[in-house]
Amino acid sequence: MYLYSRMRNGSRYWYIRKKERINGKPIVVLNKYIGTDEQLIERLLGGELKLLESLEIQSYSFGTIGAIMTADKELGFTSTVTEVTGSWSTALA
After folding, report:
1. Threshold 0.85, pTM exceeds
2. How many CB atoms lie under 10 A from the CB of residue 44?
3. Fewer CB within 10 Å of terminal CB in the chain, N or C?
4. How far apart are CA 47 and CA 63, in angstroms?
């Protein structure tokens, strides 16, 4: 799920949106309107729910892919393979 915004007549409108792959294609399965910029700020900062006071946030690392990309950058693996083979696409394989 993620926040999605649309501009209409100079105003931004916010939605909560979720996509899933159905038959191999990304399809929007949830599109819930949550308000304008002002309404969203009010809900987050001071509304009845006081959402930010009860919000729990977790952060995740890039994991294995990020580690491999960092190692490649530090060791220069892709550039070495490109030099030896003469082909950038071979280095990516």
Report:
1. no
2. 13
3. C
4. 37
Contact 37, 8 (CB under 8 A): no
- Number of neighbours of residue 51 by Cβ within 10 angstroms: 13
What values do phi and psi take at 83, rounded to 5? -65, -45
In the DSSP assignment, the letter for residue 76 is: T
Query: What residue spans of the chain are helical by DSSP H?
Result: 37-45, 51-54, 64-75, 77-85, 88-92
DSSP state of 24: T
Q: How many CB atoms lie within 10 A of CB 46?
A: 11
**Mind listing the pLDDT tens digit for each residue in 30-67?**
999 988 988 888 777 776 556 666 666 665 566 777 77
Place of tokens 């082909």: 87
Report residue 80 as tokens: 């070495």
